[in-house]
Design brief:
single chain; 85 residues; alpha+beta; three-stranded antiparallel sheet
């Protein structure tokens, strides 16, 4: 069986980027679950981004620490990330 080859089909964005640069201690951000993703996948992605941010900016866990929780806000399931250190 042959499949049709398509051109110029944009790749959907499944990237969840947190603005750690501007996040101060006590700030938080809500990331909604989209495209059938699981909250654990999003939490893992956010935690990975936080570790990359620490490494890129020469920060230790004492300087920059986040906390993520699965939440539902206004009927939308998602992940909230707090900067706690």
């Amino acid at each position: 069986m042959k499949y049709k080859i398509d051109n110029n089909i944009p790749i959907p964005s499944d990237t969840y980027k947190c603005d750690f640069e501007n996040m101060k201690v006590g700030n938080s951000s809500f990331v909604p679950v989209l495209n059938g993703r699981s909250c654990s996948v999003i939490r893992s992605s956010i935690e990975y981004q936080a570790s990359k941010y620490r490494k890129k900016n020469n920060k230790s866990l004492r300087d920059f620490k986040t906390l993520t929780r699965t939440v539902e806000e206004k009927g939308v399931k998602g992940v909230r990330v707090w900067r706690i250190q």
